Each structure stands twice: as structure tokens, then as C-alpha cells.
Amino acid sequence: MDIEAAASQLEALGNQTRLQLYRVLVRAGRNGLPVAQVQERLGIPASTLSHHLQRLIRNGLVSQERQATTLICRAVYPAMDALLGFLSEECCIEEGCSSSGKAA
Fold first, then answer.
1. pLDDT at residue 100 greater than cutoff 70
2. Locate the HTH arsR-type domain: which residues (predicted)?
3. Rounded to whole angstroms, how far apart are CA atoms 32 and 26?
4. Which listed site, 17, 33, 53, 54, has its alpha carbon 20 to 30 Å from 11?
């Protein structure tokens, strides 16, 4: 992952509503959730949810799939893993310790 992509994803997650939305989808698992259930859990207007979903989709953190008349939202786990890896891959490298970030 390059630094521009990581910065863009972190910026998208830097909004409280989007971070809550993303956490709802991460907790939901690989099956995701219908938009109506996401809206219910967050207690926000549909237009607000749509705005925040689009930002997460543009940054590759969330996907949507239409199933008949239902729109399913899912966290994109490989993107989450890549972002977390980007943040931790060089942890303590200059100290010469393990990548766990904990002193021996």
C-alpha cells in the first residue's frame, strides 16, 4: 500500500460517523448488512448514511451489492488488513525489536 492510499483511507475513517459506520460493518462479518439495518443501528438519516457510505466505497473500505431489492453493505476486509499492515509493518524497525511493538 502506498502512503497516498493509506492517508486517504485514514482520512475517510477520521470522521466519527464514518468510523462508527465502518465498525458496524466490520462487526457484521462477511455477510454484511442491508442498508436499512445499518441506518437503524446508527440512527442517522438515509441521505447522511448514503453520503458516508459513498466516501468509504470510494476509498475501497466498503462494498455494496444489490440482492433483489436490498442493498447489502460489507467491509472490505483485505483493504482493512492492508491498512493495518501498512501502519504496523515497520513498527520499531529502528530499535531492532520485533514487529509487535513491545519491548523484549
1. no
2. 1-95
3. 8
4. 33
